[in-house]
Write a structure and sequence with these properties.
The complex is a heterotrimer of chains A (199), B (324) and C (190). Chain A is an all-alpha fold and 199 residues long. Chain A has 9 helices and no strands. Chain A folds into 2 domains: 113 residues, Orthogonal Bundle (Rna Polymerase Sigma Factor, Chain: A); 76 residues, Arc Repressor Mutant, subunit A (Orthogonal Bundle), CATH 1.10.10.10. Chain B has 2 domains: 212 residues, Lipoprotein localisation LolA/LolB/LppX (outer membrane lipoprotein receptor (LolB), chain A), CATH 2.50.20; 100 residues, MucB/RseB, C-terminal domain (Phosphorylase Kinase, domain 1), CATH 3.30.200. The N terminus of chain B is likely disordered. Chain C has 3 domains: 61 residues, Arc Repressor Mutant, subunit A (Orthogonal Bundle), CATH 1.10.10; 69 residues, no CATH class; 33 residues, no CATH class. In chain C, helix 1 packs across helix 3. The termini of chain C are far apart. The chains are: A mainly alpha (199), B alpha+beta (324), C mainly alpha (190). Chains B and C meet through helix 2, strand 1, strand 2, strand 3 and strand 5 of B and helix 8, helix 9, helix 10 and helix 11 of C.
Chain lengths: 199, 324, 190
């Protein structure tokens, strides 16, 4: 069905009153939005506040979202706008268009061009997560490791992966799922999801 | 069926004024390729070409001379850091005046597969559908278009435009699975059949001059096999060309090379740096994809002019033969 | 649970998506899987800022928000769309423009302003927000491509060790060496 279509379906459900569908979108995009906002706002606590604000604004603006663009594109613009407002309201320089608008440079957030805006604890936690995941991937049997790598790093569809690995699509789906679960098992203790919280 | 879709896109990407022939016999396809390879070896020519990948363009000049004593070539970059690559038969020296290093290579080791052009052509025809396209104009000359459409998603497609009379390839494009051009070599000006003098194919630099260093680390390519490693699940259509141990950037590495006749993938295995984090990385430039992963304390890098998925399949399949 | 994995990849059909999403509403385990699988993807791509839990704060605030109910396609809607007949791009800009945001250039053009008065804007979107219109023309991203991390180690040395084996030499001779030459900036610094 495609990831974009899944997003659209979640948006549609949220537009019909299902808040939990919107929460799924938040769970999916929260890190990306935080990375985006960290480009303009230094204090990690402020970044979280602005992100929270942006998500709520997005929720309120849902009726006007028509699906002409991808959900994240739309969220991205709301995020930038919220960040600008925040900076202006707190008397700081609002980033210019050239600062914010390189949409195809979106990936530059991850390329080490952005100074570290996180707290040391958070950065350490981030790295630990990467390490745990990497080690877990390395420990996977080859066919699971290849399937998850082709999917997550190269972004291939199940059909394309099935063609590459010369196996049925159902097998690809199962391999990717088993890879994820094997990694999740090692990751969950580190994440410490609160039992009394919905997420 | 994916290859068919890519094929349609390849044809659409051609923008050739003359309608493309729909079917080309394998014999005709091989003849076109053979003629290109032969012309590249035997013609005397000089010209200026561009290499375009993504948004970047580099320009260089090239001179090629073939006579009774062999094949001579010189390539000189026209932008970026100055660089000159000079070839005499199978010896290739790359001069970098910026840091005065002359790196020597020898194509002898690479000659094991394909050993002869026929073997290479047979491999190409197995992995690609060769089709004759229309006529295109490159550098002011009429050229025959030849399309090499990959038979699966494990390799990139190519489109060659070779000058009608001589057969010399004047333009080569590499296309991805969506039919998009990801890299292109094209002559902007070429003089085929020109009288090329020996002077023109001799290096401007002298590697024996003071300050210059000769880097011969690439010559230590032997054929000893590193039996520790195995690649049990090679992507279809590729054959192992070479297995050797060599020095790269001062470090000892095992290199395994695989080829499908038109594209090659090298797999490098070297001891990991102590304390480095386990990571998987993918890098891409033009038609080159490079995938790195760590395994059992080693760093494995798979790199070549093939789709990312292919280099990843290679990289992921490398395993230590002997389990500890 | 395997269907959550397939949902993450967009590989379920429409009906299954609806079923799974309903299931996630009820079962925490499924929501956890959705969240963790996305985190795993981010971690595999080496992305930063992984330790992010802003969702908790968002959920807490959402609980206090009035439930959104988007109007079904209305006559006003169609009238507005007819006002800008063929330009999908303009329609999208207009969509963003009238979320209560002011333009710097002056009042919106008449064909857009008429429907604005008739549609109830959510309260939060009051005109003092900065305009999104000062952004350059809209660019549509389909699902953004997975970000590719450039390696800390440079691949130039490997490319140079590889180029002598590339069969492109047969068709192109030294011309094919241009590939490895163009990465040369790192080397010229050595």
């Amino acid at each position: 069905m495609g990831e974009r279509e899944v997003d659209q379906q979640l948006v549609a459900r949220a537009q019909q009153g299902d808040k939990s569908a919107f929460e799924l979108l938040v769970a999916k995009y929260q890190r990306r939005l935080i990375r985006l906002l960290s480009r303009f706002i230094r204090d990690p606590a402020e970044v979280e506040d602005v992100a929270q604000e942006a998500f709520i604004k997005a929720y309120r603006a849902l009726p006007s979202f028509r699906g002409d663009s991808a959900f994240y594109t739309w969220l991205y613009r709301i995020g930038i706008n919220t960040a600008k407002n925040y900076l202006v309201a707190s008397g700081r320089r609002a980033p210019t268009v050239t600062d914010t608008e390189s949409l195809d440079g979106e990936g530059s957030e991850e390329r080490g061009q952005v100074p570290d805006f996180n707290t040391p604890e958070s950065e350490l936690m981030s790295r630990q997560i990467v390490d745990t995941v990497s080690l877990a991937v390395e420990a996977l049997p080859e066919e699971l490791r290849t399937a998850i790598t082709l999917r997550e790093i190269e972004g291939l569809s199940y059909e394309e992966i099935a063609s590459m690995m010369n196996c049925p699509i159902g097998t690809v789906r199962s391999r990717i799922f088993r890879a994820r679960e094997a990694i999740a098992v090692k990751l969950r203790p580190q994440l410490g999801t609160g039992k009394d919280r919905r997420w | 069926m994916k290859a068919a879709a890519a094929g349609l896109l390849l044809i659409a990407a051609l923008s050739s004024p003359v309608a493309a022939a729909d079917t080309t016999s394998p014999a005709e396809g091989m003849r076109l390729l053979r003629q290109m390879a032969s012309a590249a070896r035997q013609s005397n020519y000089s010209g200026t070409f561009v290499y375009k990948h993504g948004d970047q363009i580099e320009t260089a000049r090239i001179w090629h001379l073939t006579n009774t004593s062999g094949i001579y070539e010189r390539l000189e970059t026209l932008d970026g850091p100055p660089l000159e690559i000079v070839r005499k038969n199978e010896e290739v020296i790359c001069y970098r005046p910026f840091n005065k290093i002359a790196k020597v290579e020898n194509w002898r080791a690479a000659r094991r597969f394909p050993a002869v052009v026929s073997e290479q052509l047979a491999a190409i025809v197995t992995n690609y559908a060769v089709r004759k396209g229309g006529i295109a104009r490159v550098a002011g000359l009429d050229c025959q278009v030849t399309i090499l459409e990959p038979r699966d998603l494990l390799r990139y497609g190519r489109v060659f435009c070779s000058e009608l009379k001589s057969g010399l390839p004047l333009r080569a494009k590499t296309l991805n699975e969506r039919g998009e051009t990801i890299e292109m070599f094209a002559f902007t000006q070429v003089d085929i059949g020109a009288a090329i003098s020996h002077e023109q194919v001799k290096p401007r630099y002298d590697a024996t001059a003071p300050g210059w260093k000769l880097d011969q680390s690439a010559l230590a390519i032997g054929t000893e096999q590193d039996l520790r490693w195995t690649v049990p699940n090679q992507p279809a259509g590729f054959r192992k060309v070479l297995e050797t141990m060599r020095t790269i950037q001062g470090r000892q590495a095992t290199q395994l090379v695989y080829s499908d006749g038109l594209a090659a993938v090298s797999v490098f295995i070297e001891p990991g740096i102590a304390g480095a984090r386990a990571a998987q990385e993918l890098a891409r430039q033009g038609a080159i994809n490079a995938f790195t992963r760590t395994h059992a304390g080693y760093v494995i890098t798979a790199l070549g002019e093939a789709p990312a998925a292919t280099v990843m399949l290679f990289g992921n399949s490398v395993t230590l033969r002997i389990k500890r | 649970m395997e269907r959550i994995s397939a949902l993450v990849d967009g590989e379920l059909d429409r009906d299954e998506v609806a079923r799974v999403v309903r299931g996630m509403k009820e079962q925490e385990e499924l929501r956890d899987a959705w969240s963790t699988y996305h985190l795993i993807g981010d971690a595999l791509r080496g992305e930063r800022c992984l330790d992010v839990k802003v969702i908790h704060a968002v959920v807490a605030r959402l609980d206090q928000e009035p439930t959104i109910l988007a109007p079904r396609r209305s006559l006003v809607d169609s009238a507005w769309r007819l006002a800008l007949p063929s330009m999908a791009a303009a329609a999208a800009v207009a969509t963003l423009a009238w979320i209560g945001l002011q333009t710097h250039e002056g009042p919106p053009s008449p064909s857009i302003s008429t429907p604005v008065a008739e549609l109830a804007l959510p309260e939060a979107m009051t005109p003092q927000s900065n305009a999104l219109v000062d952004l350059v023309q809209p660019v549509y991203l389909s699902t953004p491509p997975p970000s590719i991390q450039f390696p800390a180690r440079n691949i130039d040395a490997y490319l140079q060790a590889h180029r002598e084996f590339s069969p492109s030499k047969t068709m192109q001779g030294l011309v094919s060496y241009a590939r490895s030459v163009s990465t040369g900036t790192a080397e010229s610094g050595r």
